[in-house]
Amino acid sequence: MIDSSLRWVDDRLGVAKSGRTFLDKIFPDHWSFLLGEIALYSFIVLLATGVFLSFYYVPSAHEIIYHGSYRPLDGQHVSEAYATTVGLSFDVKSGLLMRQAHHWAADIFLGAIAVHMARIFFTGAFRKPREFNWLVGVTMLLLAIVNGFLGYSLPDDLVSGTGIRIAYSIIESIPLVGSYIAFFLFGGNYPGSGVILERFFLLHILVVPALIAGLLAAHLGLLVKQKHTQFGGKGRTEDNVVGSPMFPVFMAKTTGFFFMITGGIALLSAFFQINPIWQFGQYQPYLITYAVQPDWYMGWLDGALRIMPSWEFVGFGHTLPLMVFLPAVVFPGLVFNIFFIWPFLEERYTKDHAYHNLLDRPRDRPKRTGAGVSMVTLMFMVFFASSTDVMANYLNLPLKAVLWFFRIAVPLAPIVAYFVAVKICQEMRAAEGIGKRKRAVIIERTAGGEYVSVSTEPHPGDGHEEVEAEPVPTFIDLTPPELATGPGVRRVMR
Amino acid sequence: MSDGSAPRDGHGALPPAALDDPRLQPYARHPERAQLVSGLAMFIGFLGFLGFGIAFWVADSPQWEAATLGIGFAATGFGVTAWGKYLMPQGPFVEERHAFHSTEEERAAMTAAVVERGGMVVKRRKVLGGLFALASAAMGVVLIFPLRSLGPKPGRTLFKTNWKKGSQLVAISGRPVTVDDLDVGGVLTVFPKGFEGTSPDQVILLRLGSGPDPFPLSAPGRTSWGAAGYVAYSKMCTHLGCPVGLYQEQTQQLVCPCHQSIFNVDAGAVPEFGPAARPLPQLPITVNRAGYLVATAGFDQPVGPGFWERP
């Protein structure tokens, strides 16, 4: 059956040879390599749930009177966008599940991308020949943030509407062209001519996802072509890949992992409510609620806006709202430019033009690790700065004190973090036996009451012997059947 | 998997592996147990999916749907992953990397093809090349034009609101505000009559005092801008345009809930904390003969966040 259908396809496309090579493709094993898979699979969940949602959602600011099954809103004037979002949550079977899963998957998608990117950075996986894939990845991160914001804005609830208002003002702050861009995008002065939800909707469900999908294909294609990186270890060199084959091992693990990610998202949706827009109510430009905060991946921009001193340049007949333009336009622009050019900066600085297929341990590159820790610290600090009001309330501190803490800590902490990280890396590199597998130490008490520590030998068959890697065999010789049920040899791979 | 007659394509002479090859052994020390765990997990997964079916048709509860679906996916996934990790041959297997860069000759040939053929064509047909460049440049410019259709030019829109001399202050419902509507310490969001709910027109009306005297305002030149203890400020934050909706009577502060800019109401709504740089524009109001609050003029400056064209 398989043979005849393969024959049919192969006659026409000639896939057997490359297909066999693909089945034998080796994937190295390390827990950190599945971070990207989390992003990939949550993206698939996003697509599936998003299609379902788009069947019901109507991107219209047109005002109607709500008459759905959510009683507290009955008879209220709401936009069609808001009404259909509430409707698909309560009046469509599985609708709430799909909406919750969509939102959770988006938050996980962004988180997985961020952590995956940190893994790539700290292990030096972006180095030659993988600079292209780094650029593709950073672009996808940018698009994912944009699409997250667009999607978050669609329900037209009080919290997301406030976010759109802020976005409008940020665009307005751009010198020369700001008000023009804002007017063209929104169709007029805020809230515009009622087109923004339609425009956001089309961008959210078509343009940006198509870009992400295309880049994703390029990301994976480059991965296949350039083969995965690996950590050093027995038998692993710059010129090979050691691990388990695509079929069946990797396929089984990754399929299972896809199921687990989807299951995790579904369980989150079951037990943790996310974005209950029916509690926030319909957006009105003159209404506001306390402790408005964006989704987590926008927090760094919100935090930067909050801690910025009130500098506004006025002169020469113009106004330049620096307290908006610097944190919300210049700051993210700088951050992403650093992301984009980092591989080239590093190559230039280290004059290292060699191919790198073996990954670095972060401690072996103290300066790069320091720079990464510094950036992560900066991001965390501005992120936490986006909840100054909540913190002040919760910790019972004056808002002023919390704000000033962040105004000082945000620029200072990354510098301190850099030096601490570099120092820790240097100390770790100097330590004896670090990175080596530790053996069990047994403490024995002698008859005289003395305690002696005895270090153990590795147990034979305990899985600590490493086997030399071999190419994937073409077929398996079944001759010694008595060994088929014999005890397996357990190996721990590094 | 036994297929001795398969052609050894692409791999040269690979050795056949024997079943006792350590690379073909499962990772699990006790494969039977691993099989049991994996199988059990997948069976739980099956039950989870079954439960989703029941929840969908019978219970019609999103919580049960999500929980059963989650169990279905997570348990099945765990089973399959455990199967792959513990019961399939783990290797280590090795694959050689091949340099994917071309040889120097191939590179030279490619460069030569581009330079020579391209040069040959363009040099011979300089006019055509130039015209194509011209057309492309024109295309690049004119294809930007349709973006202009997206919206109107800002013009003076950002400088204007619908407030003008004599505009009656009304609540969102359209009900006119009388001098007796608010107690001291009370606030109300008001609009010019006929423009209820429009974003740039939102004004926060506060009653800071009572009695017939105009409320003494410390903002110079604005002593007559309030009436009967009432003052009115644009409700759009001068930082990012959020409604400055939190009024703290004891400290006489207006707080923006978005980024915590704080405006001092006593001193003419000047920013005293946070990222906002400009005071909230004040709307001059008075009480007319019928006892209704009306504006004596429009705003004397653009409301809301800053923008380039703002003087």
Describe what this molecule looks like in 3D:
- The complex is a heterodimer of chains A (494) and B (311).
- Chain A has 494 residues and is mainly alpha-helical.
- Helices cover 58% and strands 6% of the residues of chain A.
- Chain A folds into 2 domains: 2-351, Cytochrome Bc1 Complex, Chain C, CATH 1.20.810.10; 361-434, no CATH class.
- In chain A, the strands form 4 sheets. Chain A has a two-stranded antiparallel ribbon. In chain A, strands 2-3 form a two-stranded antiparallel ribbon.
- In chain A, strand 7 and strand 8 (451-455) form a beta hairpin.
- Chain B contains 4 helices and 13 strands.
- Chain B is flat.
- With 311 residues, chain B is α+β, with helices and mostly antiparallel strands.
- The termini of chain B are far apart.
Q: Which structural class do you get from the secondary structure elements of chain B? A: alpha+beta
Strand tally of chain A, please?
A: 9
Order of helices and strands of chain A: HHEHEEHHHHHHEHHHEEHHHHEEE
Described by the principal axes of the CA atoms, the overall outline of chain B is flat
Domain unit count of chain A: 2
| Main sheet properties of chain B | 5 strands, antiparallel
Q: Cα distance, first to last residue of chain A?
A: 40 Å
Given as residue ranges, the uncertain stretches of chain B (5+ residues, pLDDT < 50) are: 1-13
Helix content of chain B: 25-40%
Runs of chain A in which pLDDT lies below 50 for 5 or more consecutive residues are 480-494
Count of extended strands of chain B: 13
Annotated CATH topology of the largest domain in chain A: Cytochrome Bc1 Complex, Chain C
Mean pLDDT figure of chain A: 90
Relevant CATH superfamily of the largest domain in chain A: Cytochrome Bc1 Complex, Chain C
Oligomer: heterodimer
Strand content of chain A: 5-15%
CATH topology of the largest domain in chain B: the name is Rieske Iron-sulfur Protein
